[in-house]
Amino acid sequence: MANEIKVKVQGVDVKRGGTLIVMLFSHTGFPKKHQDAIHSTTVKANQTEILFSFNTQLQEMAIKVLHDENGDGKVTKNWTGFLPVEGLGFSNEQKIGLTGPPNYQKSKVTIKDPISQFSITLRYP
């Protein structure tokens, strides 16, 4: 039986243009391998708050949101090659730290109801 997952993305900087990519991951590929996302959707970043909806069989997942300003589908990094220059958000309010991106165990959420909603606030450099 499929669950409906709603993801409310907040704090979108619409002046930056581009698109938002919301990805749902099982334990495989999170957070760097976008091609391994179980579900993914892309919309224009034209509102400060956008609600996404997915139907999934997953009972546990991690969520990543990328404000893809340049449309390349990847996280663009600054001159150091380490720090992102585009907005990112993760489930459980995880963020990129000194040791890199968050891991699956800290980011995962468990689905307990047929309809579940999660909020993710984008963080910009």
List its salient traits:
125 residues; mainly beta; 5-stranded antiparallel β-sheet; 3-stranded mixed β-sheet; 1 helix; 8 strands; 3% helix; 40% strand; globular
Question: In terms of topology, how is this protein built?
Answer:
Layout: E1 3-10, E2 19-25, E3 39-44, E4 49-56, E5 60-68, E6 88-90, H1 104-107, E7 109-110, E8 115-121
Proportion in β-strands? 35-45%
Residues in helices, as a percent range: under 10%
Low-pLDDT runs of 5+ residues are none
Question: Which value, in Å, is the CA radius of gyration?
Answer: 14 Å
Distance between the amino and carboxyl termini: 40 Å
Largest sheet: 5 strands, antiparallel
**What does the average pLDDT come to?**
95
Structural class: mainly beta
How many helices?
1
Tell me the number of structural domains.
1
Question: SSE order, as H and E?
Answer: EEEEEEHEE
Number of strands: 8
Shape: globular
Describe the structure.
Helix content is 3%, strand content 40%. The chain starts with a strand and ends with a strand. By secondary structure, it is mainly beta. The protein has one helix at residues 104-107, and strands at 3-10, 19-25, 39-44, 49-56, 60-68, 88-90, 109-110, 115-121. The strands form 2 sheets. Strands 2, 3, 5, 6 and 7 form a 5-stranded antiparallel sheet that branches. Strands 4-1-8 form a 3-stranded mixed sheet, with no helix packed on it. The protein is globular. The protein has 1 helix and 8 strands; from the N terminus they run E-E-E-E-E-E-H-E-E. The protein has one domain (3-121).
